[in-house]
Amino acid sequence: MPLRRSVLTWLLALALSALAGTCLAGPADDIRLLLSRGDLPGALVVADRGLQVQPRDATLRFLRGVVLMDMRRDDDAVAQFTQLTHEYPELPEPFNNLALLHVRAGRLEEARLSLHSALLNDPGHQAARVNLGQVHLLLAAKAWEQAASAATADSALRRKLQALRNLLASEALARPAASAAR
Fold first, then answer.
1. d(CA 168, CA 142)
2. Core vs surface per residue 69-89: b (16+ CB within 10 A) or e
3. Exposure winner among 59, 80, 86, 171, fewest CB in 10 A?
4. Backbone CA torsion sign across 65, 93, 166, 153
5. pLDDT value at position 141?
6. Residue pair 176/134 in contact by the 8 Å Cβ criterion
7. Tens digit of each residue's pLDDT (9 = 90 or more) over 54-73
């Protein structure tokens, strides 16, 4: 019988710790939940409240940037991620998301530089690696478009440009990869 009592005690302790974990969920978890539900205004309110209590919390600041980015408040998101890259230059995620905002604004060279910074910090960062490939394709398209606009552009270049445009328009490349809301 003592064995059963210890198992029962262990199961009760496990249940209580799981319940306590649920009760101790912080603002970062709340923001992630609200983001997953598409409640961007609510997520921003939770982020701002959390930052009033913990103004230096890098995760909350990053998540606030993600919310701003999803709300298409790009100038605010750029400011948020830029500040994080200055204060935490070792983190690849703010550089990656900053690059996405640069792409959205047509600043391809700035995006490329941000992605290189992300990959210097974490060479295995999958989202940054994927996004760098896409930025290189966009830069190639821009260069080929400039070359094709010349009167002497050949048909081979025009075919390459059309193939690249088709590739860029495909579903697989339509959405760049944001860093996860860690």
1. 12
2. bbeebeebbbebbbebbeebe
3. 171
4. positive
5. 92
6. yes
7. 999 999 999 999 999 999 99
Number of H helices, E strands in the chain: 10, 0
The per-residue pLDDT for range 118-148, each reduced to its tens digit, is 999 999 999 999 999 999 999 999 999 888 8
d(CA 20, CA 25): 9
Q: Which of 158-171 are b and which e, b meaning 16 or more Cβ less than 10 Å from the residue's Cβ? A: eebbeebeeeeeee
Nearest CA to 181 among 27, 63, 99? 63
Residue with tokens 């391809």: 108
What is the spatial distance between Cα 111 and Cα 151, in angstroms, rounded to a whole number?
Answer: 31
Q: What are phi and psi for residue 41, nearest 5 degrees? A: -60, -40
Q: Please state whether the predicted TM-score (pTM) of the whole model is above 0.90.
A: no
